[in-house]
Amino acid sequence: MDLFPGPADKGADWLVAADYEKGTPILHLLRPRSEVEGGGSELLWYCELERCQGSVSLCGWAGQAAVFADQYGCFYLVDFESRQVRLLKQFQLGFMDAKGVVSSDGKALLVLFEKGRCHYLQRIGLDGELTPAVELDLYDDDAFGGGFDYRDEDEPYFSISLQHRLYPGPGNSLILHGLDDDYDDETEQDFWFQYLLRLDLVEGQPRFRVFPLATPPADWDPEPGVIAVSPARSLAAVPVLGEAALGIEWVSLDDGQRSAPVWVRPLDENGLESLSTSLFSTEEEALWLGWGYDGVRRLAFDGRLTSPLLQAKGQLIGAGAQLTFDCAYAFARTKLPACTASALDEVQPLALEPQDWRHNWQLTQAQRMALSGLGQNLIRVESLAEPAQQRAALQQLVALTADCRAVSRGKTLLFLFADQDQQWGEEAFFKAAAKQPGALALMAQVLEHFIATPGSDGLEGLYGQPPLADCALQLGLQDAAYLPLVCRYLEALDNDHDGFFVGQGDGLYQLQVRHQGHPAWAVFDASHPYNEADDE
Prior knowledge:
- It is a single chain.
- This protein is an alpha+beta fold.
- A five-stranded mixed sheet has the order 13-17-16-15-14, with no helix packed on it. Strands 1-2-3-4 form a four-stranded antiparallel sheet, with no helix packed on it.
- The chain is 17% helix and 34% strand.
């Protein structure tokens, strides 16, 4: 799971937790509780990003709404004030072929994407306005508006890439942090260089400004949070590597002017790799730096170190009226330490009291049931205990699986069965329903629908298991006549998701114990895709 800080005006009162337990991302709006309230958090609201796949990132806040995106170009606007979710756009592209940030005025999403080896920028208004995408041509001399130019007569030495880190820039510009390497004919060695590329749209056309930065270490690949950008100040804070210390340079996003480095920590064996977070404070004229679970430090804009290195066992994610830390499935908050002049090597402990992100929610039974239903297709009947109602649930399932892709959440295909008093997961439901008269034919129809679904091998069930695995298992256990269908089902699966049958759960072993003496078992055992002969 991931934790994100709230907007500036709610930074101390809100946290957003993204949970991926069911495959599709589920966002939880949390209010940290005080010690008087028993600690933990209050669950204010929750929502599902149905079309997102895998983890999501925060593209930025616009008031009390935020844009979240997965790594496949699916962007959602989540309004935490009005409790509404809206799909902004889903790019039909590959993995990491689209990235976006919210513009500095909070009115649009700026999306950089690649298609057919060309790069484009599209402005998507958060009010729904969609402007045409603009191709970004680095060979267009008219597109350069100043700053250092890394070009020679043949080709650009700088590039636009989805590997670059993206930030909102001043005047609704887009800032890219690029790292590239080249070959020096004189030294006959590779060299690395980095730069900030500012991209403005002027009357709908791109204008580039490129600002060189200090020489980086070879193969440095920082996370986006290592560089801090303040559009309001037109300023970036970029880490640099000295002979004995790690420093920060202030870089103007208007003309590329760089300050002298301010040294912030003695070097260790990890160099720049150890720095994980740089955050402009929303309450102070300061920059907060974080080194993973190792410590944090405050740097004033005038270059003074105004705190020692505060050793804290958490990842810094918010710097406002309080410091907020992600502590691995938990969070911690602490008051801002007093500003004191500190030496470069001064170190002090910072005690944190992590709170489990789900602790003290105090949910009603109805809320628990509603929350557990997220990320799944809910099938309701009057009473799950009644055999006739179990068959009715199977009939609903047959109808839903006629198009498995239409009812999947990203890559996840899950079903939950409920009446007014209880909920059954797939394992409990199929174990009970398979024993009812007429159930096996309906379950077989469900599997036939799944097998016929294009791209079914890309779908997952709960915890990465095969989708509808319990349906296939119970069908095979009840009647050996269905083993050929189970075999075809196994062939339709992605081998990465076969753990239920050949690893954890060991479904094949259960089928063997039940049917080993049956003639159909020998045929099945020789033909299913996970037999020992194939493994060898």
